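Both lines are retained for reference:
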Amino acid sequence: MISVEEALKTIEERTRKTESIELPLLDAQGYILSKEISSPINMPPFPQSAMDGYAVKAHSTSTYTLIGETQAGDDSALSLKEGEAIRIFTGAMVPNGTDAVVKQEDVDSGTSEIEISKTIRLGENIRPMGEQIMAGDLALEKGTYLNTGAIGFLTTLGITHVSVYDKPKIGVIATGNELTKPGEPLSGGKIYESNTYTLAAALGKSGFDTTISTVIDDYQLTKNKIKAALDTKEVVIITGGISVGDYDFVGDVLEELGVVSDFYKVKQKPGKPIFFGHIGPKLVFALPGNPAAVLSCFYIYVLPCLQRMIGKKHNQRVEEFALRTPYSKTAKMTHFLKAYAANGEVEILTAQSSAMLRAFVDANCLIQMDQGMEEWKIGDKVKAIMLPS
């Protein structure tokens, strides 16, 4: 049995980034850039008006001769001489010779002349060519998360395809004779299966797709199910069947299928009987069956691993908060507690049992109460793993 820190280090050392693929830009949201992008153009590509108003070539009086009009999209060939002005609109190309764009609220306009009621500042309301980025400059670094803003920014540069880290194919398998699919009648001794749905939701929230399935506690059926997943997936997540009961077949099946154990059992609560292993480049997580333990282990171990695979720089947000209630435990184990943090303080929620998911409805973090410590008082600072919002 190893410590939490050893388990995390083992997973990190085993994890490799996925291959780089090229995607159309609109399909790439939620992916991570695998290559940096340089701007192919100046942005804006020409001096551009930031206002509806009048482009002017400054001179000594407040009266200017109006010589024309240009709007956004016009390829303006106009040039201004001293004392001349043109009507211009936001986004339009600024004519050669322009000293400033005076917004229309500061102008009294006629059919052939305008009167400007303010002092002109050179360059005002003009976006210089390349103000946002110059051609050849770095637009986005390798490792950038492609959110909505990134997609929009790259679109303004005319970019249509990007190179990103591929997302791993993930399979989730729940084991157990007691499991009944939600929506079906619940007979004696049965419970509704929630682990695959919970993990699929958590994975989807973080931008990963998965396939889900269940299998009863039968050795051959379990072997067939896991082998099929290993044949088609890069990451396999199994819940239940990894402990030492008479019907816990997962460990033996993994060994028979050639999965190498990197660790089994971690000094933590909940989720002590957790397995992590590999077969070639493929990774296997076998989590305990209790629902809250499954979700805790997912956030602590599985999600950071998946994010590392796709090149995400910051895998986990960890903050410190002052504890609102005292807590005690054995020094031998690390405890992860469902909690709610706000305004610099964190409250331990009730119903911490590994079988109870209800507290996760209200939780926005997991407090990590480290191995080697036994007592915490009100006001003590504790480390909190923030959950995806």
Remarks:
- The longest strand covers residues 334-342.
